Every structure is written in structure tokens, then in C-alpha cells.
Amino acid sequence: MANVTILDHPLLRHKLTLLRDKETTTTKFRQVAREISMLMAYEVTRDLPLEWIDIETPLEPMRSEYLTGKKLCLVSILRAGNGILEGMLDLVPSARVGHIGLYRDHATLRPVEYYLKLPTDVAERLCILVDPMLATGNSAVAAATRLKEAGVKQMKFVCLLAAPEGVATFTQAHPDVPVYTGALDRQLDGNGYIRPGLGDAGDRFYGTR
What we know:
Blueprint: E1 4-6, H1 10-20, H2 26-44, E2 50-56, E3 61-67, E4 72-78, H3 82-91, E5 96-104, E6 111-117, E7 126-130, E8 133-134, H4 138-149, E9 154-162, H5 164-173, E10 179-184, E11 187-188, E12 194-195, H6 201-206
Helix pairs in contact: 1-2, 2-3
């Protein structure tokens, strides 16, 4: 699919298997999701711009590479997005953080916004929008739309798992936003859950299943 990258590193694939397993405990689920998030952040930030600066090592002066311009903004779609956010912050602790609160109306499967908090300079930053699952795609589309309304011009969307239906919905609405996922699963079921999937990510993160 155009503008969709499946991150297929062996470690990531192994850890996704652990997340999918229904026997994986809440504690283990959080730990592994955090590890996967770091792996994904490493790949998603591969093209960050660098500049040469002058420094001194303990032995001599030199020119070395340094991230240039405004840094990242990580934007979590609440609540489950926070499970990915923490791992990414381990890798890029200087990133600013935003939150978009959305819940899915189970009757219509449409997102309902209840919270929005973004850095004041969000429009000047590369935003990485995170949510564990790209299922129907409706919440991700709504969140990306809100970021664009806030002036964001550079954005990437990152999820653990995606369904073909969600990818189609998101890329049609936001063809300029690259999607990074750990796996593209078979389909959605009648309740809007990814199959085979890993269940409800929020419930598994927080032990509310």
C-alpha cells in the first residue's frame, strides 16, 4: 500500500508475537510494548535532519553531527496511545508531548473528542501521532485532522497493528501522512476489532479487560 511502511525487524516481529498471545500478563504486555515502541521510534526518526557542529572530545576538537531545527512532538491518542508514547520518550526524552482524547462510539464506530492539549509551537515541529491500533481508521483520521487544524505540516502516524480497512480510510483522508506499523493484519470483524489482532490494546495495557 502506498505511503505505508511495515517495520519487519526480527526483534519487533518476535515481540509482537508476545503481545498477541492472550496468556501475556498486563505487566509483560506493558514492558514489551515499551520495547517495541523504542524499536519503532528508531526507525521512524531515521530521516531527521542533521547539521555539523564544532565540539571538543577529551582528546581534541572535531566537527560532528547534531540534530538541527525544532525537535519532535509526540502526540498520543488517549488512552492506549500512552502505552507507545512512554517507550518513544525513552529514546527521545527531549520531545514535546501532546494528547488527543478520543473514544469510539460503539454504536457508530465514530470517534468522539473529549480532550486536546498540544504544545504552543506544535506547528513548527515534526509530529509523530501514536495509537496502538489502526482499526477502522476513524480515530486516527480525526486526530490527524485536528493536528493539521493546529498548523502541523509534518506528521507521521505510528501503530503496532493495522487493518487493511483502517489503512485505506486513513490514507484516503491523509495521503500526505506516512503510516508506520508493525504488521498489517487480515481484516476487521463486525465489531471493528482487528483480526487476528491482539484484543483491546487499552484494556491489555491497563488491566481493565
